Structures are given as C-alpha cells and as structure tokens.
Amino acid sequence: MPVPGATSAPIPASAPAAGYYEFKPFNIGRWIVWSLFAVVLFVAPLLFTSSLSQTMLSQMGIAIIVCLSYNMLLGQGGMLSFGHAVYSGMGSFLAIHTLNMVGKGLPIPVSLIPIVGGLAGMLFAVLFGWVTTKKAATPFAMITLGVGELVWASSLMFPEFFGGEGGISSNRVTGPKPLGITFGPQIQLYYLIAVYTFVCTALMFAFTRTPLGRMLNAVRDNPERVEFVGYDTRKVRYIAFIIAAFFAGISGGLAALNFEIVTSEVVSGPRSGAYLLFTFLGGATFFFGPIIGAVLMVLAFVLLSELTKAWLLYLGLVFLFMVMYAPGGIASLVMMNLRVAAFGRLRELWVSYLALGATALIVLLGAAGMIEMVYHLKLNPALGPELKFLGAPLNAHGVNSWFGCAFVMLTGIGLFELTRRHFVHQWGEIQEYIEKEVKRREALA
Amino acid sequence: MEFFTISLLNGISYGLLLFMLSSGLTLIFSMMGVLNFAHASFYMLGAYFAFTTSQLVGYWPALVVAPLLVALIGALFEKYCLRRVHKFGHVPELLITFGLSFIILEMVQLVWGTSSADYRVPQALGGPLFTLYGTQFPMYRGFMMLVAVLMLIAIWLLLTRTRIGLVIQAALTHPETVEALGHNVPRVFMLVFGGGAALAGLAGVIGGNAFVTEPGMAATVGSVIFVVVVVGGMGSLTGAFVASLLIGVIQTFAVGVDASIMGALNAVGAPITSDTFGYPLWRLKISQIAPILPYLFLVLMLIFRPKGLLGTREG
Description:
Chain A is mainly alpha-helical.
C-alpha cells in the first residue's frame, strides 16, 4: 500500500511559492508560525493540567530539542549517527554533577545548568567527533555505534562518575531563587523547558540559514563538488557535529533537571536508536519533522507502553512500513497534502482519506487482536486464555477468536486495497493537475 | 607460557567465530553496498532455530537446517522490503534493517521467551580435544575453528573460482551490463543477501551453544562485528579475517591480565594513592577494560589508518 506521491518527484524543501505574503523586511508567514509555536508552548500546560500531562509536556520539550539536534546530523548533514545519546547523556551527567555542586555552594543559577550540559556535550563532540567525522555515510554510522558502545561500556567502569547501577541523583531546588522561582513545582520547570525549547528551536532554525548550514546541505548532497569548490567536507561535518552535540547536551541538562536522577542508561545504544527512530518517523527532510517525532516519542514511551505489552513490535512494524512507503516521514506526508491544499484540491480527497483511515483501522484491529492474543498466551499464561481487547472478550485458545480476528483483518485488507486503488488514481490525477498548473503559472510569470 | 598458549588458542577460536559473523556482513556490504544492521539478529535467529531443530531431529541436521531457514528469511526480507527501499538510497536501506532488528528481537522474545535457552553442545563434541599443561582444550572449540576455516575457504573459492562469484562481483559495479548479459540481477542480490544471512545463521548454530543463547546475544556481538568490519577495511574479506583474529586474541588476552597502571607505577616507585588525580583511571585493571578494547582499537585505527587494515578506499 504505497502512499502515492511518496516516491514521485523530489518534494521541494519549502512550501510552494504560490504567493505568500511577504513585506520586507518581515516575512509574515514565518512570524505567524513562530508566534503560534510560542503560544502552543505557553498554553499547553494550561489546557492539560494533570500532573501526568505536565511531566509529559516537559519530556516533549526535552525530546524536541534532542530530536532537532539529531536532525541537524541526519536530515541536514546526511550523517546517520547511532551514538547521539552519548552527547545528550554526557550533558546530563555533567549537568547533574554541577547541580550537586550548586547544592554545595557553587554560584550558578539552576536555570543555567542546561547550558553547562550543552557545553559538556560540545566538549565530548570535540573529542569524539574528530574521530567519527573522519568518515561519512555508512562507515560514519558504524563508527558512531562503536564510540557509543565505548562510552556505554566505560560507564560501567567508572562508578564514581556514572553512579553505577543506581545512577546519580540530585535535587533541583537549590541555589539562589530569583523572583521566588524554585523550580520545585513541575509547572515552573515546564516553563524553563519551554523557554529553552523555543530558543533552541529558533537557534537551530537560524543555523539552517547560515552559510555553514547551507554548506552542510551541500556536503550531504554532493561531497565531491564541495571538495572541488575548495571546502573541507570533513571540517564542515565536524563543526556541525559539535553544534548538534551542544544542543543535545542542553536537552540532556534539562532532562537531568526534570528527572533529578541520571543513570548510565542515558548514554546507551537503545537510547540513541530511539532518537534515530523517532527523528526519522517525524520526518528528517523537513525542519519541523523531528518536532512531530519528539511528541510521538514521548507519547509512545509513556502512553503506548502502558497500553500494550507489544508496543515495541508495533513500533518496529510502523518504522518498517514508514521506511518502505514514506521515507520522508510524517512531515513529508503533511507537506504533500499542504501542497494539494495550496492548489485547492484537498477537498476532493477527504472521502478517500476517511475510507483509507477506516479500512486501515479495521486491518489494525484484526492484526492487533491476534498480536495481543499471542502476547497474552506468552506473558500471562497463569491468567487463563481469556483477555479483554478494547472491551471485547477474546479467548486465546478458542478458534472463534482467532477466526474472527483473521476475518476482520482480511476483510480490512481487501477493503483497504479497493480504496487504495481509487485513491492512487485520484492522487495521480491531482498531481498531474498541479504539475500543469505550476507550468502554466511559470509561463505567465 | 601456559597462559600464553591457552589464551592464544581461545583467542583464535573466538576470533574465528567473529570472522564467521563478520564475513556475511562484509559480503553483503561489499556486494550490495548495504550495511545490514540486522546481521547480529540473524546470528541470534540461527542459534534459536538450531536450538529448536536440535531438540526435534538432533544437532547435525540442525547445522544444515537452521542456516537454511535464516537464509530463507533473509532472502524474503530482501525481496519484499529491502528491494523496495533501494531506490531511496543508502540511509533508508540501513534504516530498514535497523527496523528489522527490532522486530526480530521482539519475535524471538515472543516465541522463545526472555530467559536463555538450554541449547547445549552435542554429546559427540562434548569431550576435550587434547590436554595442554593440564588444561583441557574442548573439542567443540576445535570444531568451531574447523568450520570457520572451511567456510573461509569455501567463500574464497566460490567468489574467485566460480562463474557465480564472477556474476556476483560484476553485479555490484555494472548491474546494467550484467543484466544485459541475461543474468537476473535482483535475484543475484537476493541470493547474496540470503547467503550472507545464512553465514550469520551458521555462526549462530556454532556460537549459540559455545556461549549462551539468549535474546541479548545479538546486542553483545552486534557492535563488535561492526568494529571488525571497519578495522579490517570496509568490504574486504581478508581484512575482516585479520581483524577478527586480532580482536579475538587481544580481547582474550586482556581478560586474563590483572595488571593496572597503578600497579606498574607502584612497582617502579611512583606510588599512586586514592588521593592522586584520576585515581579511578589508574586503578583500572586491564581485565576490567577488556570489554571496551575493541572500540578503543577502532578509535586508534581511525586516527592512524582510517581506511582500515586491508581497506582499499577511504570513504
């Protein structure tokens, strides 16, 4: 079930210039988007007031910074790193050690601790990046993995610094308290995280517009030509690596403040893998993609893992399908539809989308029923073969339940295929129209 | 001398197992340009398949059946997933194998449980091969070495002395030409991927009972085989062979050495106490740093010889 258009002509990096409002020196559209982002960051905890949602929102802010910084490597530099957790994790560790020193009288305000984390991440990137950025592409991926393993293995060798199994804990309510802000209540910390998230996002976006950021894209797309023009591709990658690690470190520092405990798990390979996975799912080709990915990451780790035991399997499957059918991630799907909307044809598609969604849901329902039954049989054999799945009683030993689930799934697949064919046809037509329209407008201009 | 000989033998046998693992990875990488992140997962699958098959029909059939099953899974994965992603470039190719490793891990835990499987060395190979300085060298280690060496010879002969090897090698650099000559290039790639997976599966059959068969086994060797491939030189089979032996021997020796820098300095009269700066670092014993030695080796290699031991290209 390929998502049509996902594999067609390369998607332009920005929204089609179908007449956007620009008054020099202000780019109105950009100001609106960034104001909206600020408003969302500000309003979110006022709408979701429970303590669970506040912790989740805080984690989302942290995740947004680290995923964006990861995308600086993956999306902008074409560097697939398997060791990004090293830099956010080392940021966490140095931040929590600094926090403990603040408790002993070091005069640094708590709100600046994340910067310490950022500097720590940067320092480690200066060290390790010098080795890892010697290579690009696939060898780079393997080497970052090796360096990640190196740090992870040493974290068990130095319990004084990494705190061994128990980790290092601290207390963020310490040091001077300007305006009575203690960072004791979660909401105060949330706003600190929100400010950092906004500033870091803005800085990282600004980075994409700098000559260095542009050069990084060139290094990703055509390293030979960059070399030929006289730039050192390795130096560009190295500098970008350091900058990305700085932001990762900030996120690590914020995480240290948020959880008040850092265990060696934060530098582990699975953590790096999670950053990679969700940055990609969100969409590495667009700047805002990782933000979507980060939100999904927190939702998956906090909510999905509570909901079902099989969440890692679902995650792996979703990832597999995304790589196969929508390698641009969720962001690219959004942008493709925005393009259709910009040409005023999105309205025709909504029936198809509804049908696709409904049939996909049926497939998912049948498949999930079977997956849940298998997990139930394996993990809770003592509870007997009965389980509740979305309120429906299933019997994992009964033929009826299996037959029912399989039937639901197969019906879903059949219906999905029918709607998909219709949709592909429709989508192709609209894309053709858009191509023609673009050419026509070009001819007029 | 006793320590030296025994460690050398153990190191070589561990190194040969590493080679069995990394040879498949190197093959797939050099033939298809795909870095298979799920390679260690295929190794794990091989071990579990062998565990189940050996319970049903015995060890010797399992030695053949398990790698074939893994090869089948690898070939199907190539045909239905990897091939679709090929047009998007190298990064999605790598990512999809990364996703596969997640799914295999989850599946293995689902089918065989999260604790280790009771997969044992077969009775016939259980005894000692010979006794050296009073230490018995297990027959199974000898068997492991034998299979690895046979495998090396077989791959080398297949690639350099047969028509199939010629087609495979040409298919990477000149796919259109090979296609024009009437060979089915996608099928060649499918076979190569399946073959590489089978090698990993074979390593799993052999290594699973020599070490331990558990869901974490893919993670333990996963990054070491990448180190082997980088240190040996990307895509060089001989390089992988040398590098795996080197890493196997170094690591095995390190595990047995109990010295530390503190001990050495104390012996020459520069005492280090718990007050000295960096005390935890000086105090570390070589046996304690054994797990990170491969990675240190990787880093040093990259600093001094970025293309690897026998590598031919820099990229």
